[in-house]
Amino acid sequence: MGSKHWEHFPHEADMGIRGIGSTRDEAFEQAALAMTAVITDPAQVSAVEMVEITRQAPDDELLLVDWLNALVYETATRKLLFSRFEVQVKDHVLTARAFGEPMDTAKHHMAVEIKGATYTALRVAQESNGEWVAQCVVDV
């Protein structure tokens, strides 16, 4: 089994994000980190402020989109970027804490703004090797 990580995958004018982990929770955390990496280098974002997020959806795929869109909302309204996530999913209820800091264009070198997570290429599943994958395309 591999280690948890995130990656991007090409998708026309938008960007695919994929979180991979040994648990569904880790995959959701890594998907959020991949989304941050579309905007800026997550290593440049200090985890000094915390935001709690709770979401509920009928299935894991819709929950992933709700989770990512909650982060987009928090980024837009609080002007925060996030670099660390603690996610717990149970019975299609997500409780999470996102850690980050206020946007600073001099420090963060922001590439694009994410408008939202979409249902395109949406997938949350456990692979045959035991790893969990959580992915979708974000509108940039």
TrEMBL record:
Entry GO MF terms: metal ion binding
Keyword Oxidoreductase attached: no
Keywords: Calcium, Metal-binding, tRNA processing
Cited SUPFAM superfamilies: MTH1598-like
Gene3D superfamilies: Archease domain
Pfam family name, one: Archease
InterPro entries per the UniProt record, alphabetical: Archease (IPR002804), Archease_dom (IPR023572), Archease_dom_sf (IPR036820)
Residue span, Archease domain: 6-140
GO terms of biological process kind: tRNA processing
Recorded superkingdom: Bacteria
UniProt record similarity statement: Belongs to the archease family.
Protein's recorded name: Archease
UniProt source species: Candidatus Muproteobacteria bacterium RIFCSPLOWO2_01_FULL_60_18
Lineage, opening ranks: Bacteria, Pseudomonadati, Pseudomonadota, Candidatus Muproteobacteria
